[in-house]
Amino acid sequence: MRLSEGHGPVLRMAVLAVCLATLAQGDDGTTGNRGLSIRKVLKSAELEQYGFNLASSSGLFVGVSQFDDENFTEVPYAVDDAIDLAYLFVVELELVTAKNVVLALSGIPKKPGSAQRLKQLLALGAETKQPTKSGIIKLVMDQARKAKKDGMFLVSVATHGFSDDGSYLAASDTLRVALKDTGVDSSALFSYISRSEAPRQIVLLDACRERIEVGARATQGGDSAASRILYDALKKTSGQVVLMGATVGGFAYDDDERKNGVFTAAVLDGLRGWAPHDEHGLITVGILADYVDERVRLWVEANKPQHAGLSKGIGRRLEGQVAELPLAVSIEYQEQIKSFRNTVSSNVEKLKECQSPDGPITGAIVDDITRLLRFAEGSPQVIDELAGLCERIDGLNQEKATEESLAFYFGQNRERLFRLMAKDEPAPEIVATPGVRDGMEVVPIPAGTFLMGLTDEQFGEVAPEGKDWREDAMVELPAHRVTLRAFRMDKHEVTNEQYLAFVKATNHRPPKSNGENDRDVWDGMTVPESVARYPVVNVSWGDAMDYCEWVGRRLPTEAEWEYAARGADASTLYPWGGDPVCDQRGRSASYSKCRANITGTVDGYGVESPACSFGEFGYGLCDMAGNAREWVYDVFGEYSGKDATNPNGPKYGSGGRQEIVLRGGSYGHFDHKARVTARDSAGPEGRRSWIGFRCADSAVNASGSPSKGEALAEIEN
Fold first, then answer.
1. Which of the residues 12, 19, 383, 500 has the least number of beta carbons within 10 Å of its own beta carbon?
2. Read out DSSP for 442-485?
3. Which domains are seen in the chain, by residue range?
């Protein structure tokens, strides 16, 4: 039973039934998932190597706060619980894709945060349905069929529960006078769930067991008969881990400050990293059970001491090795990761200082070690394996002997270290041209699938009727799913000093505007010291491709650019999230409140600004929203709306426009051009003072981009 403060003694019984029949086993019969890093646990491309396929998982999240029958009391936070749990598993843990998720909701969320999370889930492809009795049963059966042998089945139900010669759950159309006939039989519910072929079944059942009728009062001790009936139903389902929010006859509670159940809040916090971890930094099912039990006990002792004898933590039943299934990474280990990231940054700088084309530490070695270090930021197992490498980096002291020691060690261990990054991926072939020839920090971007462009709902929000840019924003429609291989992106736009080295080494033409009434930054072959760290501008698409080729990289595709700009939160409209480019206070008080270099001087700059002046966002990239617009590889064209994998864009532009896509806002654009979806174009020979570029690369050319000559031939033809 669950007591709700502020709403009278609304008693609820909370059950978390984690039904994980078996774990994916390795070829040697051992549990393949045990001891993996959080990146291995949660990223779909890597999970597939261990028998888990994100696309084969499905989820159903039911929240019934309001009922057609006025004789039922409201379940205040049922909708919030359903939304928050769905968001946890879809967005935060990435254990199921939004397009395979249905939310059956009756009522509205109490928290603005839950309402926003629901909008994000729907934008990502989730659906909403009505939680009627027949609707719930049909949805359970449908979603159970979607979950396959290499996936997971997630079910969450928050509503009233009651006993009437059995154990039943209240749907939105359940009648108080006919509970047995119009309620959802909990035994049947578990039976439908168990029919799924998915070996990992997670069921969260949070059901009110008291004060289901208006005017009725709960009796202390609760409906223990109903509790026992539900326990009996759970026991009949084989291969389950069962965590119950209250022992039989005990209570579970609503937390009016959190606007979640105490039990649900503990589950959310635990899987968001606050639970303890095992030796690999991972939170397993068994660890989560212990954490939730302690949280519930402490809350009762602090807030309901009079019930301490009744609500004795949570009930549980763990079978086999399922207790060791990893679900998330702990906050403590996240802090260790943060510390390691600082170490990575200093090590990368030290490597660059020692880099020399004729010395032991070449650009190719710096490139490969940087890639390993960046990958290790999310992998506890790899961090341990890199201890010997990091020790030798720390020992670099400008003496050739220390550099030779590092180069020798890396040469001996290179293949082994790269095998840690991907089970079946060989180390990239070492080529003669250094990958980091210009000293640029190249940031790894993980493989993934995202929704590219604007959804109809987003279009209505960012470009409402009457706005001047509404027509411009139409080229960002329709939204479509794009899947990309892993790649790397320059941390910031190529700077004047980096481009100057290229010009001197190749005798390439210096940047010079060919636009009317435009401005030049360089003085012939000279770059003023004051703008050395500013992004290079006044370069054509061909100039940009020449530079990227010289440093051993390439221009990013348009899809790669948008995916990288969005960061891990693929639903965001700006690299930093949903906040505006500049806070309103910042427009009149301080440019420090701005997040990008856009039009005007409120951000502190009238034209370009030094690279990374506004910090890092997303995957660790700078200036994706402002400073200079950026050339990408693709020819400009309208979106087809079809799903795509590693797209290069159209071969020919739409409407006869043989122009190249430009991405990212600039110092000369307003806020609406700072969106990650904003698109523009220019002729390939355009050299303007607000257009620059950055490069990308991958071990294997992820985009299949042709050479500059082939690309120009397509444009010219």
1. 500
2. EEEE--EEEEES--HHHHHHHS-TT-TTHHHHGGG-S-EEEEE-
3. 2-328 (3.40.50.1460), 332-421 (no CATH), 444-716 (3.90.1580.10)
